[in-house]
Design a protein that fits this description.
It is built from eight helices and nine strands. It folds into two domains: 69 residues, no CATH class; 149 residues, NAD(P)-binding Rossmann-like Domain (Rossmann fold), CATH 3.40.50.720. α3 packs across α8. By secondary structure, it is of the alpha/beta class. The longest helix has 18 residues. The strands form two sheets. The chain has a five-stranded parallel sheet, with helices on both faces. Strands 2-1-4-3 form a four-stranded antiparallel sheet, sandwiched between helices. β5, α3 and β6 form a beta-alpha-beta unit. This is XdhC family protein. It holds the Pfam family XdhC_C. It comes from Pseudohoeflea suaedae.
């Protein structure tokens, strides 16, 4: 691989950006294409499909053959709230292949005993996310019922373009949440990306059943997502 291409790929990996190394099998030349870069014609369509599937392979375009080596960051799930649902959801999500982080400033809830083997951070989300920012390949699950804890990461997730944003709460609770997020400057269209009530409608009742419905909804969003697109009206992440 060309040293410049390798350097660019390593930089993309550090930034958790999806990229494809496109190698022309006719002459051996390669280049890197980041998700969201415009590539015209059949090759662009093939690159888009490869990024969405996450699978490498050979593609034919414009009468030539290319090998598309896909590099997609591992999907993350950031759970806001060390509650009973989170205790069930965190191990389920890890089994499904997600890198999972649980954040909750309430030390009575965020204890190692309740979240054994979990990446648990007992601090305010706004402080944690400064050093561990959200990105397109992250699912944000907010389940504290407390606006002081949930609202900041929800706003950050929507601005960043997380592939999934979900929040626990009744329709009445979510209605109040919508008004707060509007006051924070988010558009109705952007706020409409929040899955609320959270989870697929399977009639879940217990914390474990709710966790199953949430994980299923997150997986659905992961497997049907499009290429990263930042909301033009929101700007950079908070």
């Amino acid at each position: 691989m060309d040293p410049h291409v390798l350097k660019s790929l390593n930089a993309a990996k550090r930034a958790r950006e999806a990229a494809v190394i496109v190698t022309d099998l006719n002459d051996g030349r390669d280049r890197m294409v980041r998700a969201g870069d415009h590539v015209a014609g059949e090759l662009g369509e093939a690159i888009g499909k490869a990024l969405k599937s996450g699978k490498s392979g050979i593609a034919e375009a414009e009468g030539r053959e290319f090998f598309l080596n896909v590099h997609v960051p591992p999907a993350r799930m950031v759970i806001i709230g060390a509650v009973h649902i989170s205790q069930a959801l965190a191990p389920m999500a890890r089994m499904a292949g997600f890198d999972v982080t649980v954040i909750d400033p309430r030390t009575a809830f965020a204890t190692p005993e309740r979240f054994e083997d979990s990446d648990l951070v007992a601090d305010w989300p706004e402080d944690v996310l400064k050093d561990r920012p959200l990105d397109y390949f992250t699912a944000l699950v907010a389940v504290t019922h407390d606006p002081k804890i949930d609202d900041y990461p929800l706003i950050s997730a929507l601005k960043t373009g997380c592939f999934y944003v979900g929040a626990l709460g009744s329709r009445k609770t979510h209605g109040r949440r919508v008004e707060r997020l509007k006051e924070a400057g988010l558009s109705e269209q952007t706020i409409g990306r929040i899955a609320a009530p959270i989870g697929l409608p399977i009639g879940a009742a217990s914390p474990a059943e709710i966790a199953v419905s949430v994980l299923a909804q997150v997986i659905e969003a992961l497997r049907t997502r499009d290429l990263p697109v930042r909301d033009a009206d929101e700007g950079a992440a908070a």
